[in-house]
Write a structure and sequence with these properties.
Blueprint (H helix, E strand, L loop, with lengths): L3 E6 L9 H18 L3 E4 L13 H10 L5 E8 L5 H14 L6 E4 L6 H7 L6 H15 L17 E5 L1 H10 L3 E4 H4 L4 H9 L11 E5 L1 E3 L3 H21 L15 H13 L1 E3 L1 H15 L3 E4 L6 H12 L3
Parallel strand pairs: 1-2, 1-10, 2-3, 3-4, 4-5, 5-6, 6-7, 7-10, 8-9
Helix pairs in contact: 1-12, 3-5, 5-6, 6-8, 9-10
């Protein structure tokens, strides 16, 4: 493959481990990713979720950037419903001033995971037209076209990416921004991606459409081993959809999975690219060919940190 390969690390916690260990592991994984020659290393924003330690992307980005020297560091993403555009712009500019040419800003529109979290954040709804307005305001602030000057001034604008669904793709096309498209959308109708490219408005910063595909990717010695390594994340996701609690990764399956949860596990595995190096190369090559993507952002997690490091190295070897 000739596409760029990047990582999204959500600072997944492990059962029996302090959450702070997940943050330290994220920084260490970023250092390994840089040594492997991977293109970007992004972190996430999730609030009050026991299974994820990362609630503040700018703080974690600062820690990652300080412990690396070449790899691009970004957010996958900052959730705009939770922040005012000026605050996001100034955080991004500060990072870009401290680490020139290495900071990316991925922006999403997801709300809190549960109603209590949304209440604590003070955001119960966020319509698509509001996202478009806030994203345009953020872009203008970063381009020094806003009603005030985001500080520190004089800092080149970090690249903006939109974590996009159907509505997000339309907004990104209107504003001339690159997009990150998640796994489920890649397995179905690609008309929205075609529409994004057709409606894309070129800018000086982004003269052409740019598509990043994001999904779980697991490379192992055998297909069975790769599948087993994906199971802890699939178990946690399946439980969360029925219990409302997204918990830490566990080495062993839950005591009991319902039929509905078992089906959810299989659906998640189907959405991942996993297997031997040859199998994953072929599957990602097909996805890239169908979507026209320029980059793969692997969002892989597993309980075994040593196995995850081996999988990252095997993924880097595919390029």
């Amino acid at each position: 493959m000739t596409v760029r390969i990047s990582l999204l690390d959500r600072s997944r916690t492990r059962a029996g481990e302090e959450p702070a260990a997940a943050l330290r592991a994220t920084v260490e994984r970023a250092q390994r990713a840089e040594a492997l020659g991977l293109h970007r290393f992004w972190v996430a924003e999730h609030h009050a979720v026991p299974g994820i330690a990362s609630g503040s992307p700018p703080v974690l980005m600062a820690a990652v950037a300080a412990r690396t020297s070449r790899i691009r560091v970004g957010s996958g993403g900052v959730m705009l419903p939770n922040h005012r555009p000026l605050v996001v712009a100034e955080q991004a500019r500060m990072l870009a001033a401290l680490h020139p040419g290495r900071i990316d800003l991925g922006i999403g529109r997801s709300l809190g995971f549960t109603a209590p979290v949304r209440a604590a954040l003070g955001v119960s709804s966020y319509p698509p037209d509001r996202f478009g307005r806030d994203l345009a305001a953020l872009r203008d602030l970063l381009d020094d076209r806003g009603p005030v000057t985001a500080q520190p001034s004089g800092t080149p604008r970090p690249p903006l990416f939109v974590l996009a669904t159907g509505a997000g793709l339309a907004v990104a096309a209107e504003l001339g921004l690159p997009v990150v498209v998640g796994g489920p959308a890649l397995r179905g109708d690609l008309a929205a991606l075609a529409d994004y490219r057709a409606r894309f408005r070129p800018t000086t910063a982004q003269p052409e459409p740019y598509v990043v595909i994001s999904l779980d990717v697991m490379v192992a010695a055998t297909a069975e081993r790769a599948r087993d390594l994906l199971l802890p994340e699939a178990w946690a996701t399946a439980e969360s959809r029925t219990t409302g609690a997204f918990g830490p990764l566990r080495a062993e399956p839950p005591d009991r999975l319902t039929d509905r949860q078992r089906r959810a596990v299989e659906r998640q595995l189907d959405l991942a690219a996993h297997g031997t190096a040859g199998q994953v190369r072929a599957e990602l090559g097909d996805l890239v060919a169908r979507t026209g993507a320029a980059e793969v952002l692997a969002s892989t997690s597993t309980y075994d940190r040593a196995a995850l490091a081996e999988a990252d190295a095997a993924l880097a070897d595919l390029v």
